[in-house]
Amino acid sequence: MNDGFHAQPLSADRWGDFEAVMGPRGACYDCWCTYFRLVPAERKSFTGSEKKDFMRQRVNEGPPPGLIGYLGERPVGWVQVGPRADVPNWNSPRTVSRPLEEADAGDPAVWAVSCFFIVSKERGKGLSHRMLDAAVAHARTAGARVIDACPIERTKQSKSVGLYVGSRRIFEAAGFSEVASRKEGRPLVRLVL
Fold first, then answer.
1. What GO molecular functions are on record for this protein (predicted)?
2. Which of 171, 139, 168 is closest to 66 using CA atoms?
3. Residue 135: phi, psi to the nearest 5?
């Protein structure tokens, strides 16, 4: 498919592209992709603009917390990918995404793909597959040893907001295998690089 798709790490100079993908409400209800970065009490106390500021500061500090996907020059998608330690709430002992081994939470070679967001008019066109492929390539280049994810098995609608964690089928297509099942419909999957 030669539609000009490519993905680039989210750095400070691409912040405007991140804003374009997230839209005026910060994607999922003013989240600004902070759901796994902030503990629940803190996240709930933040306004949408405070979450946006938090994420902008994180991007400015680096390293890139994920990738922006483009069709040509137009930003159309986001995937949050990086070491598990970068998304501390993803490692909470109370979550289905918690690590297999406690040490994985702080191991810089154990990465996570924790969130996706595709602009609404581009959903259902296979961009999540392409974003995941780019995330895997990015993780491999950065020295990741394994990548974990905790996708959703199925949703009622193909364009459901619940797909922010990705669908199981895109991870299976990319070679991820289930390594734990802590809640029906939300497997922990892993790709060994």
1. acyltransferase activity
2. 139
3. -65, -40
The rounded distance, in Å, linking the Cα atoms of 78 and 66 is 7
Mean pLDDT, residues 32-49: 90
The residue type of 183 is: K
Instruction: Identify the pLDDT of residue 40.
Output: 85
> For residue 80, what is the DSSP state?
E
CA angle 110, 182, 38 (to 5 degrees): 55
> pTM to 2 decimals?
0.92
Q: Are 37 and 56 in contact (CB under 8 A)?
A: no
- What are the DSSP calls for 113-160, one per residue? EEEEEE-GGGTTSSHHHHHHHHHHHHHHHTT-SEEEE--BS--SSTT-
User: Residue 70 sits in which domain range?
Assistant: 5-192
Cα separation, 33 vs 120, whole angstroms: 16
Q: How sure is the predictor about 169, in pLDDT bands with cuts at 50, 70 and 90?
A: very high
The count of domains in the chain is 1
Joined tokens for residue 148: 């974990």
29: CB partners within 8 A, 6+ apart: none
Residue 13 one-letter amino acid: D
Q: How far apart are CA 115 and CA 162, in angstroms?
A: 10
Beta-bridge partners for 110 = 146
We report the CATH number of the domain holding residue 21 as: 3.40.630.30
